[in-house]
Specification:
This protein is mainly alpha-helical. The protein is 52% helix and 4% strand. The chain is globular, with a radius of gyration of 19 Å. The chain starts with 21 loop residues before the first strand and ends with a helix. 28% of the residues are buried.
Length: 233
């Protein structure tokens, strides 16, 4: 039996939730709860561990697995994970959806990141973020060519190169904020999706966190151990 009669985000009756977004699970006490899954996605997009908003009880591993599987299905079917009220998404909504999709992939690897850490980066931050990832990949982590190929197959090929530019050359260019946002989101996407196994994709996600803690104070506060591992505490 469900314990809640309204949806936590909209406060509308749970029977008004569109069936495709309806998500329910049983907690540790076998109590049933129902949500619009987009409400739960919103919570994770803020870098929060998934908890029942009504009880503050953490989701079990089984419930988390159900949640992630449903999110993957919705993404595969191209359903928006953001609340939208019109059939046609605005360019801003399309962009926010894309950022959310990428960050949800990172969440599935065990790293809770707030999408605001990316959205709030300045032009200077974006340049620094790209440079930080370039340095990690090129020499700072001491990765061998074989290790790089496992983490990001085809990283050195012209058709699928991970880094198309040397940071110093880009700093002398006139790329605008829109260009940098797309460049860095594509870089994140490649790091967290091209690995030949989940553990290798998890390494790619860790590298993203290593880059973010160098340009976002909030990310550094959330992951002090990552900052310490870089010798920057």
């Amino acid at each position: 039996m469900l314990q809640n009669t309204t949806e936590v985000y909209s406060m509308e009756p749970i029977d008004s939730i569109p069936s495709v977004f309806f998500f329910s699970y049983a907690d540790h006490q076998k109590n049933g709860w129902a949500f619009d899954i987009r409400s739960l996605v919103h919570l994770t997009s803020q870098g929060q561990a998934l908890q029942n908003p009504y009880t503050r009880e953490s989701f079990s591993e089984a419930a988390l697995a159900m949640f992630r599987k449903r999110v993957e299905w919705l993404r595969a079917k191209e359903y928006p994970l953001l609340y939208v009220y019109d059939e046609v998404l605005t360019p801003e909504q399309v962009w926010n959806q894309r950022v959310l999709d990428v960050f949800m992939k990172i969440e599935a690897m065990g790293y809770l990141l707030n999408t605001a850490w990316f959205h709030d980066l300045s032009l200077r931050n974006h340049r620094a973020f790209y440079r930080a990832l370039f340095q990690l990949w090129a020499w700072r982590l001491g990765l061998s060519a074989d290790e790089k190929e496992e983490i990001c197959p085809g990283w050195s090929l012209a058709s699928s190169r991970l880094f198309h530019h040397v940071p110093e050359d880009m700093n002398r260019g006139h790329q605008d904020m829109k260009w940098w946002k797309k460049k860095n989101l594509n870089l994140i996407y490649n790091l967290v999706t091209r690995g030949t196994s989940k553990s290798l994709r998890g390494l790619g996600a860790l590298y993203v966190v290593m880059g973010l803690v160098q340009v976002s104070d909030d990310a550094a506060e959330a992951y002090p151990w990552v900052l310490e591992s870089l010798g920057m505490d």
